[in-house]
Design a protein that fits this description.
It is a single chain. This protein is of the alpha+beta class and 444 residues long. It has three domains: 8-82, Uridine Diphospho-n-acetylenolpyruvylglucosamine Reductase, domain 2; 87-205, Uridine Diphospho-n-acetylenolpyruvylglucosamine Reductase, domain 3, CATH 3.30.465; 211-394, Vanillyl-alcohol Oxidase, Chain A, domain 3, CATH 3.40.462. The chain is 35% helix and 21% strand. It is built from 15 helices and 19 strands. The protein has helices at residues 16-19, 40-53, 105-113, 131-137, 144-147, 182-186, 220-232, 245-255, 276-288, 300-311, 313-318, 335-349, 375-394, 410-417, 419-432, and strands at residues 8-9, 33-36, 57-60, 77-80, 87-91, 96-99, 117-118, 154-160, 166-170, 195-202, 204-205, 210-217, 239-244, 265-272, 293-297, 323-325, 328-329, 352-358, 363-369. Strands 12, 13, 14, 15, 16, 17, 18 and 19 form an eight-stranded antiparallel beta sheet that branches. Strands 5-6-10-8-9 form a five-stranded antiparallel beta sheet. It has a four-stranded mixed beta sheet with strand order 1-2-4-3, covered by helices on one side. Strand 18 and strand 19 (363-369) form a beta hairpin. Helix 7 packs antiparallel against helix 12 and helix 12 runs antiparallel to helix 13. The protein is globular, with a radius of gyration of 22 Å.
């Protein structure tokens, strides 16, 4: 029988520390306790013990997730891997980093920068989220328009399975086609197939020049149409972010800025690399056809300041009260339609909705603020969220572009996938975790 790990009982810590992630959602009841793993051996011992006793396990890092995937309820062992936080190596020749799951995303990028390299995925929570959490949800980010999502940066993973065994998936080479791509299967699985304890990640040459355009439009639909126009012109910015008027007002209130006074929508565009200056001029030409104003800069500090304003969108709305954070994605050609109809949903339901988007890949974040703490306000917000999910599927999209399914979107995920695909996914999950002990609250 596997020996018991060092489990810290819940009464010795604040339950809120392990109950919920940033989404605020949590299952009912208290977990058994928390194991704060210090190395891979402790992760393996915890899972071997849990497997032997049939105890569910929820893996947790920074708890910055937005879908309830790291939330723990009754009878669960919380496995905290945030202490596995070493950058083991960075190889400038091969362009790879080997890291543990508790490494903060921004810290890895800063370490890569010292070698002239870039770790491209940069979710909005880049300063607090961990590599392990990014892998669990296949996190995207502002640079996703050009560089893709976390899965595009993962070459190999060390994974502890439900029974405590350790497997290495993938390889350290950029190319390799031997066997099924189990590495990509684990990315985005929200801790349901195993616990990631190590990752080999792709690094890219760090662009020496970044150019920025800030464009303001009469309304957010016009900004969305301008984003489509950039694609039709053959331009592929590294960053293409869209913010509506309500969110601009919230950002201004948080930062003391005057963005909302400049237009009804803000489109942030960045290009990078040796051709960045020429490309941003081409961007300016396209945007000027419909924008109220367009400003460009090659100054890195000014570009970072504008990107920081966009990164403050969610904190700015959260500062106004309790929110439901949604995360749909639609085909880029349907982006303007989706935004118009989300605003119509807000009008129909009376909900207070803020919209910002990764316009380069069609990923929208409608943030629904509860007007108060009454049951009626919650019902109003839930009705708006349900309508947004239905809209995403109607437009050929998905109910989650990057935040994951977690415990919040299980029913809508089943609707999106359909019974045949759900059955297939359940069968795959059983192969990795026959007892179903890994993050059961996320099971479809």
């Amino acid at each position: 029988m596997a020996p018991a790990p060092d489990i810290v009982p819940i009464p010795e810590i604040a339950p809120a520390v392990v109950h919920a992630d940033r989404s605020g959602w949590s299952p009912a009841g208290d977990p058994v306790g928390v194991v704060r793993a210090r190395d891979v051996a402790e992760v393996r011992a915890t899972l071997a013990y849990a497997s032997a006793h049939g105890i569910p396990v929820v893996t947790r890092g920074a708890a910055s997730g937005l879908a309830g995937a790291a939330s723990a309820g009754e009878g669960v062992i919380v496995l905290d891997v945030s202490g596995l936080d070493r950058i083991l190596s960075i190889d400038p020749v091969d362009g790879v980093a080997r890291v543990e799951p508790g490494v903060i995303t921004a810290d890895l990028d800063r370490a890569a920068a010292r070698h002239g390299l870039l770790y491209a995925p940069d979710p909005g929570s880049v300063e607090i989220s961990t590599i392990g959490g990014n892998i669990a949800t296949n996190a995207g980010g502002l640079r996703g328009a050009k560089y893709g999502v976390t899965r595009d940066a993962v070459l190999a993973l060390d994974v502890v399975l439900a029974d405590g065994s350790l497997v290495h998936l993938g390889r350290d080479t950029v190319k390799g086609v031997v066997g099924l791509d189990l590495t990509s299967l684990v990315v985005g699985s929200e801790g349901s197939l195993g616990v990631v304890v190590g990752a080999t990640l792709r690094l890219l040459p760090r662009p020496r020049v970044t150019a920025t355009a800030a464009a303001f439009f009469a309304d957010v639909a016009a900004g969305a149409e301008a984003a489509v126009a950039l694609a039709l012109a053959g331009l592929r910015p590294s960053v293409l972010e869209l913010v509506d008027d309500r969110t601009l007002e919230a950002i201004d209130a948080l930062r003391g800025s005057d963005l909302a006074a400049r237009g009804g929508a803000f489109l942030l565009v960045q290009t990078d690399g040796f051709g960045a200056a020429d490309e941003i001029e081409a961007v300016r030409t396209v945007l000027a056809a419909t924008a109220a104003s367009v400003e460009t800069t090659l100054d890195a500090a000014e570009g970072l300041a504008l990107a920081a304003a966009r990164r403050d969108a969610l904190p700015a709305v959260e500062a106004r009260g309790r929110v439901l954070i949604e995360d749909i994605a639609v085909p880029r050609s349907r982006l303007a339609e989706a935004i118009r109809r989300i605003h119509a949903i807000a009008a129909d339901t009376g909900a207070d909705v803020y919209v910002f988007a990764h316009a380069g890949d069609g990923n929208l974040h409608p943030i629904i603020r509860l007007r108060d703490e009454t049951d009626a306000a919650r019902a109003q917000a839930d009705a708006a969220a349900e309508a947004v999910f239905a809209l995403a599927l109607e437009l050929g999209g998905t109910v989650s572009g990057e935040h994951g399914v977690g415990g919040l979107k299980r029913e809508w995920a089943r609707r999106e996938l359909g019974p045949d695909v759900v059955s297939l996914q359940r069968a795959v999950r059983r192969l990795f975790d026959p007892q179903g002990i890994l993050n059961p609250a996320t099971a479809l």
